[in-house]
Amino acid sequence: MEFLLYIAAFIAAVAFVILVIYVVVALKATRQTLSDVSETLQGLEKQMQGVTTETTQLLHKTNKLADDMDQKTTKLDSLFEGAKGIGDSLKDFNQSLKNISNSIQTASKVDQEKAAQAVKWGAAVVDFINTRKNAKNK
C-alpha cells in the first residue's frame, strides 16, 4: 500500500511538473503577445504624434485662411458701400434730370402759349396792314 502512495505522489509530482511547464509556455506566449502589443502601441503613438502635428498645421492654415477671408470681406464691404454711394448719386442725378425735364416742359408750355399769342398778334397785324393797303389801293 505504501507503494501506491509513492506512485500517487510520483503522478502528482509529474502532473505538477507538466502543469508548471504549460504555465511557463503560456507565460512565454503571453510575454510575446504583450511585447507585440507594446510595439503596436508604440507605432500607434508615433502615428498619433504625426496626426497631431498635421492637425496642428492644418489648424494654423485654416486660421490663416479665416483671417484672410475676414480681411477680404472687409475690403469687399467697403467696395459695396462705395457702389451703393455711386448708386445713390446716380439716383439723385436722375431725379435732378427729371426735375429739369419737368421744368423745361412747363416752360415750353408757357412759351408755346406766348408763341401762339404772338402768331395771332402777328397775323392780326398782317391782316390789318393788308386791309389798309387794299383800302388805299381801291
UniProtKB/TrEMBL annotation:
Chain ranges passing through the membrane: 6-27
What positions belong to coiled-coil segments?
27-54
Q: Which UniProt keywords apply?
A: Coiled coil, Membrane, Transmembrane, Transmembrane helix
**Family matches, as PANTHER family:** UPF0478 PROTEIN YTXG
For this entry, the protein name equals DUF948 domain-containing protein
For this protein's source organism, the top of the classification is: Bacteria, Bacillati, Bacillota, Bacilli, Bacillales
